[in-house]
Design goal:
single chain
Length: 130
């Protein structure tokens, strides 16, 4: 016996014109609540969980101090695109590439002093002395 992949349509499934009625209310399911992505953005910032302040570093470490005082020259290579962008920026701003790199490094180090390295007293002492 083979079964057909299609359902058969017979007279008990048909309704006369004008005699159709909606299905009973009990068979419907409640609609899913709509997620409002902006509801998160509308929450007051005071509702947010506050992170505990970073624990201060116990004091200057000899290892950190030695590393900071080590007099060592270093260099790094820029990609071709970075070099072209740096040259163009220096030309447009009428400054040197070294000055742009120096300012960028200072900005990064100041940002680190306020974020990731805020609890390190060694780093904070060096940042405050400059």
């Amino acid at each position: 016996m083979t079964t057909s992949p299609f359902a058969s349509l017979h007279s008990s499934l048909l309704v006369r014109k004008g005699a159709a009625v909606p299905s009973p209310a009990g068979t419907r399911t409640a609609p899913e609540p709509v997620f409002d992505p902006y509801s998160i953005a509308r929450r007051d910032a005071s509702d947010a969980d506050t992170a505990p302040p970073p624990q201060p570093h116990p004091g200057p470490c000899a290892a950190h101090q030695e590393a900071a005082e080590a007099d060592e020259d270093f260099g790094f290579e820029l990609s071709d695109q970075q070099d072209r962008r740096l040259r163009l920026a220096a030309a447009k701003l009428d400054t040197t590439r070294e000055q742009l790199l120096s300012e960028a490094v200072d900005n990064l180090l100041n940002h680190l002093a306020e974020t990731e390295l805020a609890s390190c007293s060694c780093y904070r002492a060096l940042a405050n002395s400059s």
